[in-house]
Amino acid sequence: MATNILPIGTAAAVSSTISLVSGEIANVFMIPGPAGFPNNAAVSIEINTSAGTWVPVGGLSLGRGSIGISLPGASINGPGTFRLRRDNVEVSFGADLA
Question: Which among 20, 29, 15 has a CA at the least distance from the CA of 77?
Answer without folding.
Answer: 20
